[in-house]
Amino acid sequence: MTLKIVDKPAKPAPVAAKPEAHAAGHGAHVRNPGFPLDLDWVERVRMNRSALERRAATLPARRSVKKEWQIAWLLKAITLMDLTTLNSDDTPGRVERLCAKARHPLTQDIIDGLGIGDLTIRPAAVCVYHSFVSTAVKAVAGTGINVAAVSTAFPHGLAPLSTRLGEIEASVKDGANEIDIVIERGMVLRGDWQALYDEVRAMREACGDAHIKTILGTGELATQTNVAKASLVCMLAGADFIKTSTGKEKVNANLVTSLTMVRMIRWFHEETGIEIGYKPAGGIASAKLALDYMALMKEELGTHWLEPHLFRFGASSLLTDIERQLEHGLTGHYAADYRMPMV
Fold first, then answer.
1. 279 included as an active-site residue
2. How confident is the model at residue 69 (pLDDT cuts 50, 70, 90)?
3. Which of 127, 159, 306, 325 is the most buried (most CB within 10 A)?
């Protein structure tokens, strides 16, 4: 086992008197109400990196999806995406084009060739800077696509707390129903779990009914044990999702870190009965890699977790590769990227 626990902690009582249902667009899934911070629980967490690496290495080697089953999995992957643009040169026009792609993610040739005209295949959300939320909300109105805003001084998360909370409130006011917040990584490196818990709890409250994803910046947390402890603290504070990266770090999502976080989600569910979502982000650009992450979720948490309210890809170029793979399945050749532009 990669997770070592000495003396299993008692089941914590939720902070909220009654768990809430997710906001519109997230189904009847019971939302994480948050729980009191249990420092004893946090300090007992230990992760064995070597064992995690061995387990992660088996996934691409042992799991392969072929032919029509691969097509089905790739179509599913589209519905699990947060289609993202987080560039310094973003404009309202660029965001509108991203939203147009989200509304119609596949070419008509692919839809007709696969015979899926009766299916609704769209990304779960579009993810933008909070200053473009109102643009995105208008562009996807009536489609069921959620709008996620990166707030809290993305990507470093080092602005004053009042500023970060103000960003969250502004994004929610403009219509965002998902907020991707950034934790202050220094709190993890110092082991200041109370401060981390208090900040995430305050951000959860600022989100109101909006769905909150906590970005850990895992590539900057030094050890897998730190990643595991930070995951637990954020879940105790009320996070709906835990997310690997901003996409701006030198090291972003990978299968080893994902295994750490997914096993913490599994343990949290065993202790509290609450299901927490997982979002790997940064560097997931190929259909093959997306299938590896989906296999990880299926094996570690079950097929039930392969739904948009419990699993997302943070992706900007993944959709293009999936389209190319689908066209290859139909025609036997790969289309040029320019035939399937994102924005």
1. yes
2. confident
3. 127
pLDDT tens across 140-184, in order?
Answer: 999 999 999 999 999 999 999 999 999 999 999 999 999 999 999
Instruction: Kindly provide the b/e burial profile for residues 225-264, where b requires at least 16 CB atoms within 10 angstroms of the residue's own CB.
Output: bbbbbbbbbbbbbbbbbbbbbbbebeebbbbbbbbbbbbb
Distance CA 34, CA 331 (A): 50
Q: Does domain 36-334 have CATH number 3.20.20.70?
A: yes
User: What is the rounded distance in angstroms from the CA atom of residue 120 to the CA atom of residue 144?
Assistant: 10
Q: Is 67 in the active site? A: no
State pLDDT tens for residues 302-316: 999 999 999 999 999
Q: 338: pLDDT confidence band, cut at 50, 70 and 90?
A: low
Q: Residues 38, 213, 279, 321: which is the catalytic one?
A: 279
Q: Note if 243 is an active site residue.
A: yes
Give the distance from CA 81 to its chain's centroid.
Answer: 8
CA 107 from centroid of its chain's CA atoms: 26
Given 101, 213, 229, 243, the catalytic residue: 243
Question: Of the residues 180, 240, 292, 321, which is catalytic?
Answer: 180
Each domain of the chain, given as residue ranges in start order, spans 36-334
